[in-house]
Design goal:
This protein is of the alpha/beta class. Helices cover 46% and strands 15% of the residues. It has a single domain, classed as Rossmann fold. A 7-stranded parallel beta sheet has the order 3-2-1-4-5-6-7, sandwiched between helices. Helix 5 links the parallel strand 5 and strand 6. It starts with 8 loop residues before the first strand and ends in an 8-residue tail after the last strand.
């Protein structure tokens, strides 16, 4: 399938590792111009170099996505570097794991609010693009009760709701908005790789809840994101697409 992504100008907010990194590299491999941001300088530079190896325009900047001013500065700088914005991927998470004030603050200040703020700055650029799109990365935890990570689940539920509101608001401006809700994704240095050794009982219980018999891979999420950003999905908006190997549907 021809995705038609060559030359597209793509921002991945939260793009230095895991799912965000795979999304950025997948767009670069398709010939897109890609900008990424993250807080960690080392991972950010490593991913920027890997993106640049594909030969297209590349931009990267450190950004605290809980800081409204930092988001404004980053989005504007990325748009200047790429010559505009066609695709915005809101992938960042504060990942508040516990039911305390700090976890709620961490999750809410990043997961929904970074998406709101980045979108607000990006929309004037997206309005001038052809087949512009916003793709928000949520989680299966936002679709079901999340006893283990209540703050994270609630924040991702907000992202899912906001996606549908964005889609209803922006479609008349020619901007499609969709959401991808991954299940449990494993990658080097990620939380599930760590839990495999640090919390094997939890890891096994999650594994047993996935009919596919394994945890997902970041590139499997990236493939769905690329489809949603492509001309093949021109009539797709306001959708929440789960990428989870059947997780939660029994085995």
């Amino acid at each position: 399938m021809e995705l038609g992504l060559k030359g597209r100008r793509v921002i991945v907010a939260g793009g230095s590792r895991g799912i965000g990194r795979s999304i950025a590299l997948a767009f670069a491999a398709e010939g897109a111009a890609v900008s990424i941001c993250a807080r960690g300088a080392e991972a950010l530079e490593a991913t920027r170099a890997d993106i640049a190896a594909h030969g297209g325009p590349t931009h990267a900047a450190s950004c605290d996505l809980s800081d409204p001013d930092a988001i404004t500065t980053y989005i504007q700088a990325a748009a200047d570097a790429l010559g505009g914005i066609d695709v915005l991927i809101n992938n960042a998470t504060g990942y508040g794991r516990t039911d305390d004030e700090a976890s709620w603050e961490s999750s809410l200040s990043v997961d929904p609010l970074a998406a709101v703020r980045a979108s607000r700055i990006a929309v004037p650029y997206l309005e001038q693009a052809r087949d512009a799109t916003i793709i928000n990365i949520a989680s299966g935890s936002g679709l079901n009760p999340s006893v283990r990570t209540p703050a994270y689940g609630a924040a991702k539920a907000a992202v899912i709701h906001y996606t549908r509101t964005q889609a209803a608001t922006l479609m008349r401006k020619g901007i499609r908005v969709n959401c991808v809700a991954p299940g449990s994704i494993e990658f080097p240095g990620g939380s599930w790789e760590k839990r495999k050794t640090e919390a094997p009982a939890l890891y096994t219980s999650i594994l047993n809840a996935i009919p596919a018999g394994r945890l997902g891979r970041p590139e499997e999420v990236a493939n769905v994101v690329l489809f949603l950003a492509s001309s093949a999905a021109i009539w797709v908006t306001a959708q929440i697409i789960q990428v989870n190997g059947g997780q939660g549907f029994g085995r």
